[in-house]
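[Primary structure, fold]
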Amino acid sequence: MARAMFEYTKTVLSKVSFDSTLFCKELQKALQRLLPYEIEELKIYIKSLILQNPELDQCLILLKP
């Protein structure tokens, strides 16, 4: 079940990647829902999204410990 939440989160983040404010809000929600090892995987995924949408890099501050 947890894996389904991770995949759902990736889908939502990719769909809202056009708007950095909305992306940051969804990222905050994801960080509350996901397990620690899934957050590490999510960081990798987000870095690939940022390569496609550089304006999303402002949301990286949320990923800092």
